[in-house]
Model the fold of this input.
Amino acid sequence: MNVEIKERNQVLFVKGIINASTVVYFQKTLQSFINKRKLLVLDLDQVTKIDTNGLLALYKFYKNSSIYNMEFKIVGKHCNEIYNELDYCYGV
Done:
């Protein structure tokens, strides 16, 4: 399964699997929004799996969002688990 990303009302809705085979597309899509916005919101409700490649991509955007003068938010039913992982990675 591929990853699909659609924009609606200033939110990027992600669907599918974020893994080694889809992470490049995922990163390029997020990168294309960085210079256009001050806020990037990802809705991950329909993501069925994220491997370490996907978490690393999220971590890089999370960590570097201040460099781009952008607020980066993740929403969805598993967002707290993802934030916990990102905070853990950031603290290491």
